[in-house]
Amino acid sequence: MENRRKSKAKRARKSGFLVRQNTRKGRKINASKRRTGRNVNITKKV
User: Fold this and answer.
1) Which of 19, 43, 17, 42 is nearest to 30 (CA)?
2) How far apart are CA 6 and CA 27, in angstroms?
3) Contact 28/21 with Cβ under 8 angstroms?
4) Residues with Cβ < 8 Å from 43, sequence gap 6 or more?
5) Burial of 16 by CB count in 10 Å (0-12 exposed, 13-18 middle, 19+ buried)?
6) What is the reported pTM?
7) What is the pLDDT confidence band of residue 44, given thresholds at 50, 70 and 90?
8) What does the pLDDT look like over 5-29, one tens digit per residue?
């Protein structure tokens, strides 16, 4: 059981918007999220 705070920066570097933009399939994923009205590249402050 993990009791530590997850790093949002690490997660973004691994599977964030810019990483997805590097591949063709990733661009399709971002486009579909944009189509459904989901905010793709807005980070939330903690």
Assistant:
1) 17
2) 26
3) no
4) 8, 12
5) middle
6) 0.60
7) low
8) 889 899 989 998 899 999 999 999 9
